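Lab notebook, bench 4. Still working through the backlog of constructs that have no structural model yet. Next entry is a single chain of 130 residues. Request: give me the structure tokens for it.
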Amino acid sequence: MSSYKTYNHTPQNDFSFLVKMGLKPHHKLLDVGCGGGRMGFQCISYLEDENYFGFDKEENEILRYRTAFMKDSSVSKNKNPNILIDDFLLKNIDKSAKFDFVYAYSVFTHVGPDLIGLLLSNLKQHLTFE
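Model written out:
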């Protein structure tokens, strides 16, 4: 039962941490490995239109369902969240896209050092470094 509670409280704790670290509604956020949208709902409702970018490496039933729900829910319907299928090359993210914050919950624990290096290398061109 404690893991269920942790799963449900982690997004709120992480979101609060991001805000405490300076996340503002005008910032652009990249949610690496967005999966089922645990952070997506909170971030989409907080951020200004089109400032939430989430990607996962492969499309699956949960991601398809959550993407449709996030785009149609009353909280995020007019926010136009960007949900992408991509890999650590970030080839489906517009070259000019710049992010103020990057969130990667439990991604690095599931991939090897080569993929982590690949992601960090490809992220450099997309960071604002404010």
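Notes after review: The mean pLDDT is 83. The helical segments are 2-20, 40-46, 61-72, 113-123. Flag for follow-up if needed.
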